[in-house]
Design a protein that fits this description.
261 residues, 8-stranded mixed β-sheet, 12 helices
């Protein structure tokens, strides 16, 4: 059994598969769509249309880089408001054409810069959550690495919420938690243990629905195997949700998040 802090370290590994790795392994015919039709295109969020065993779906993911240059280009996976508005545009399009939505969550948090605040970062996150609560298509959300704060919640309100075994999901980073609560960021390891941020912790608390197992040592050691497990999980979840009426699905989604709150 590895510690919560060790899982934080695994979730942050540069070699760990990112959203595009899973998109390219799980789906076919992926067409990336760009821009929020208002300000610009945020490369820390990727999204578009793809096929899942021939079924059209909309896929959205927070995208980190694996090397320094790519991380700079992707803003280290920290979306600006236009990223969340791009995601919402794609989700509304999915609803119009009755496509299931799959999101991959992997972010240290929404970007906290002045420009992001000026362009309505908080409103963009809140708007996404409000809209996702009422979208009339199945939504599957999977935390594949870090899932921190509103940056994760903005694409994380789904009918099914799952985590990879070594992913973490929290209100903020352990370093931030330690700085606020203990006045000492060096106590991040202690914070990680106390925050209940691991997949097993959150499954026990009924915050998430399912845990997808990883290979020994982490997802980076066998991308093909874990992508296959994710594909099976997504297909099974969509099949289950398609058995419900739209009204039943929306009511279940409402009750799910009311209970968590």
């Amino acid at each position: 059994m590895i510690s919560a802090w060790e899982k934080v370290s695994l979730a942050r590994m540069a070699e760990r598969p990112k959203s595009l790795d899973y998109i390219n392994e799980i789906f076919t015919d992926f067409i990336e769509l760009h821009g929020d039709r208002n300000f610009g295109d945020d490369k820390s969020i990727v999204g578009g249309i793809a096929k899942l065993d021939g079924m059209p779906v909309t896929v959205i993911g927070e995208q980190k880089g694996k090397k320094a240059k790519e991380n700079m280009e992707r803003n280290f996976g920290m979306p600006n408001p236009e990223g969340y508005r791009k995601a919402l545009r794609l989700m509304k399009q999915a609803e119009k054409f009755k496509r299931p939505i799959i999101t991959f969550i992997d972010t240290p948090g929404a970007y906290p810069g002045m420009g992001a605040e000026e362009r309505g970062q908080g409103e963009a996150i809140a708007r996404n959550m409000l809209e996702m609560a009422n979208l009339k298509v199945p939504i599957i959300c999977i935390v594949i690495g870090e899932g921190s704060s509103g940056g994760a919640l903005a694409i994380g309100l789904g009918d099914k919420v799952a985590m990879l075994e070594n992913a973490v999901y929290s209100i903020l980073s352990p370093e931030g938690f330690a700085s606020i609560l203990y006045k000492d960021a060096s106590k991040a390891k202690d914070a990680a243990e106390n925050m209940k941020i691991t997949a097993q912790d959150l499954k026990d608390l009924n915050v998430i629905d399912d845990i997808i197992e990883e290979p020994e040592g982490g997802a980076q050691n066998d991308l093909s195997s874990i992508a296959n497990n994710l594909k099976k999980y997504i297909i099974k979840s969509i099949e289950e949700l398609n058995k419900l009426s739209v009204e039943e699905m929306l009511q279940n989604r409402y009750e799910k998040f009311r209970k968590i709150g």
